[in-house]
Amino acid sequence: MADAVVGEPAEPLTSQPLAAQPLAEQSSQPEPTVPEPVRPPAPVTRDRPIQTVGRRKEAVVRVRLVPGTGSFTLNGKTLEQYFPNKVHQQLIREPLVTAERSESYDIVGLLSGGGPSGQAGALRLGIARALVELNGDDRPALKKAGFLTRDAREKERKKYGLKKARKAPQYSKR
Fold first, then answer.
1. What is the residue extent of each domain of the chain?
2. Low-confidence spans in the chain with pLDDT less than 50
């Protein structure tokens, strides 16, 4: 190795290009076989309800998805009793409508913390996660609609010297 000059190959390369070699040498290797495509497993029928958690602001919701008729039971009340606001009701039903499963599952939810809007957003996230756990084929549609994204916005803390998080006390020039 001490006699080798930098930049020159240690052994001479074959002068024949790969295409010029005889066909017998090229085709002596067995052709690779293409494996058959593997089909994804069929959706598993669950023997127990699907349970997920959704969070938004200070609200935490535990959701159970049970095969049924499309009824909601939220802390022992119906959807209309717990959320009288139609905007919240529509917000909660959106994942089921997107996945086209609004009449096939009952939803049982335990809601705690936060206010109505936070609880509605948390319930929507919990339902969307349960639908994905039930059938992964719904994931692209729910993801595109934004139902699987956890809304990370939280209340900003109050700073000293200010009235609220960003509101400054009234300024008097004189």
1. 50-144
2. 40-44
